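Run log // design_07
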């Protein structure tokens, strides 16, 4: 077992956000979520988040999953770790990974490999480092025959040390039992007046404890952002990584313009993603499906061979072989069975749409259970809300809903029943029946003649 302490108390003032820096999104996913997902994948069971600025956001994120401690004053990385002293003591027998909460691209492989390196070498501390072509601004890893001698900040480097390309990521594995007494020895005797966690590393080395560095296979572990330009760069890097993963897996992307895919989205080989699509959350796209152009799907499942064009969907499920769009909204709780056609300007909410049903155009279906092979005429809708309560509508297999039909819930339309165009249905319709609900048609002969004369006279004056 092992522990992870995530330092997430920073504000990121240059981001100009009400959120903590770690709650800002990269590819539609909060930075903190990138990190905790990698930790869980690596098998880390005990995770604690050090909160600070706007702590309520992180506490809500962590609720029921991770522990939190509050750093009331931001007095450096060492102080953030001191804040979690009681939590560290509870897990003193396991090694602890201390990780900066603003670096989203850590991967589970680097975590597990660095932990193995830390344990195999019986290190008191292991620095996670990276080789970068341009190390300016980063702390350099100074090595000797015993491992890491020091972590030298840019301003303190000699000319020779400035040429070192191995840099400190700001993340460390510690023997927790060794870390706790070292924290007691930290001081604020520096230009910033802060407690530095790097000082704990040097304290352990000065006491004859083994300190070494594990060099990550890539430099992405050090990437973070301090302003919106930096956040844009992180998003561009994430976009490229995610698209390359799906391309390698056999997903067709002929033009990447406007395509944003969150890291947790799953896409089966053979699917095609067209320009302008945003896929977020736990969205799943089936084999040979075509998504786009201009679809936005969140937490939505799309079956094999379905085609979605200009669809906005949240929390919906679409079966196999469906044709949906353009200009369709699928709201949470919507379940669409196989071979369903949903045409232009249709909204469906919290409803079950049966196999082979057609909801062709200008329809609203809310809180309804619709059977198989039902046909909705243009402009028909279910009136599910009376201003206080919501009710469900039930439509049987093979029913035909005529144009401009209003189904006022709670109501049931039976199997193979018909509703006449323009009807407002307020009572149940038996199987195979036709319901006609219209007001009496009245005709006034000659009514339009005077109106037409005035209209024509007005036209002549305009000429």
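design_07 sequence
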């Amino acid at each position: 077992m092992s522990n992870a302490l995530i330092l997430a108390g920073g504000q990121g003032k240059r981001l100009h956000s009400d959120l903590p820096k770690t709650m800002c999104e990269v590819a539609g996913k909060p930075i903190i979520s990138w990190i905790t997902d990698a930790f869980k994948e690596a098998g880390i069971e005990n995770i604690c988040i050090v909160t600070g600025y706007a702590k309520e956001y992180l506490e809500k994120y962590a609720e029921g999953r991770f522990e939190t401690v509050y750093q009331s004053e931001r007095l450096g990385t060492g102080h953030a770790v001191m804040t979690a002293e009681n939590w560290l003591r509870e897990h003193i027998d396991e090694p602890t990974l201390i990780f900066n909460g603003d670096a989203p691209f850590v991967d589970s492989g680097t975590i597990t490999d660095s932990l193995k390196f830390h344990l195999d070498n019986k290190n008191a501390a292991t620095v996670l480092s990276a080789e970068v072509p341009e190390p300016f601004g980063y702390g350099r890893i100074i090595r000797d025959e015993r491992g890491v001698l020091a972590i030298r900040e840019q301003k303190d480097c000699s000319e020779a040390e400035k040429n070192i390309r191995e840099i400190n990521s700001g993340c460390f594995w510690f023997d927790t039992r060794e870390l706790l007494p070292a924290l007691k020895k930290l001081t604020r005797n520096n230009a910033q007046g802060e407690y530095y966690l790097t000082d704990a590393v040097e304290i352990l080395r000065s006491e004859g404890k083994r300190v070494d560095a594990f060099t990550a296979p890539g430099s992405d572990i050090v990437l973070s952002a301090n302003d919106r330009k930096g956040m844009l760069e992180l998003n561009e890097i994430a976009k490229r990584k995610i698209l390359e993963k799906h391309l390698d897996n056999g997903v067709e992307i002929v033009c990447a313009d406007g395509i944003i895919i969150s890291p947790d989205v799953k896409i089966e080989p053979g699917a095609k993603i067209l320009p302008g699509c945003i896929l977020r959350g736990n969205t799943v796209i089936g084999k040979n499906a075509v998504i786009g152009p201009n679809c936005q799907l969140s937490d939505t499942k799309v079956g094999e061979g379905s085609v979605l064009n200009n669809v906005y969907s949240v929390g919906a499920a679409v079966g196999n072989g469906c044709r949906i769009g353009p200009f369709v909204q699928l709201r949470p709780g919507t379940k669409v069975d196989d071979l369903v056609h949903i045409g232009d300007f249709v909204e469906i909410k919290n409803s079950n749409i049966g196999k082979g049903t057609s909801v062709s155009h200008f329809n609203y279906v809310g809180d309804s259970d619709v059977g198989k092979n039902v046909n909705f005429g243009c402009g028909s809708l279910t009136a599910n809300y009376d201003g206080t309560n919501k009710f469900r509508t039930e439509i049987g297999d093979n029913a035909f809903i005529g144009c401009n039909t209003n189904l006022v819930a709670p109501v049931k339309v039976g199997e193979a029943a018909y509703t006449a165009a323009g009807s407002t249905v307020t009572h149940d319709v038996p199987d195979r029946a036709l319901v006609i609900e219209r007001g009496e048609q009245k005709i006034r002969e000659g009514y339009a003649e005077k109106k037409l004369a005035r209209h024509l006279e007005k036209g002549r004056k305009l000429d």
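The mean pLDDT is 93.
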